[in-house]
Amino acid sequence: MKLIVAGASGFVATEVIRQSLSIAKITSVIALARRPVATPLNLGQSADATKLHSIVLDNYGSYPDDVHQQLAGADACIWTVAITPGKSRGIDFDEVRRVCQTYTLAGLQAMLKAHSEGGSRDAPPFRFLYMSGSASERDPTKTPSFMPQYTLMRGETENQVLAFAAEHKGAVEACVAKPGFITAPGQLLRTITATALKYAMSVPNVQVAEVSAAMLHEVVHGFEKEPLENEDLVRIGRQALKLAE
Questions:
Q1: CB-CB contact of 161 with 186 (8 Å)
Q2: Which of 32, 130, 161, 214 has a CA positioned 20 to 30 A from the CA of residue 111?
Q3: Residue 177 pairs with which residues in a beta bridge?
Q4: Which has the closest alpha carbon to 95: 130, 61, 133, 128?
Q5: Residue 200 has pLDDT above 70, yes or no
Q6: Which alpha helices (DSSP H) does 47-180 contain, by range?
């Protein structure tokens, strides 16, 4: 499998890449980011760092010919490009929408085209896993209590990704991962924040290793269900990590 990790320099994507280099079924990892992506630290004993290929893309909304050629034949993508709720507060909302929504659809379209041009006619559908969040709301008639403009926009993006897949049935399969707050060992502030959000707002949490393992499992083996809620990511991730031991 040739896997694209979009937003490859980010917190979750770095862990996705680290784990992917130890998965035998993944033969090539395309790290798509706005700056060069180095090999992650603490690779597993079975990791093959030669599988990692860093591609610098200045604008996720536009894919030059040289980038398009390097994406050719890709089988799947884990899309992590976004502006988080916390960071979005200080950014013009049009820019937030452009990064979270416009870029997502542009990337999906470009990758499907590259998949179609680089693969055989009987190639399996391109798998696109969009990482959203547990608070995102797909029903536009609802008014979420938490950052309604942002969460409705993220839910609208989920709907657009799934609608695109439905329109291209047989050529692309799409799924949305909806993690809660993501924690990591040794990051005390994240742990404290996760605990506070859980008790104050019932926001679930998941460890970065778990959500990464779960998303990798799903793009390699096929989507178990849609969407993948936080509890699904914890369950699948823990199972995948245990098998990898």
A1: no
A2: 214
A3: 131, 228
A4: 61
A5: yes
A6: 65-71, 85-88, 93-97, 103-118, 148-167
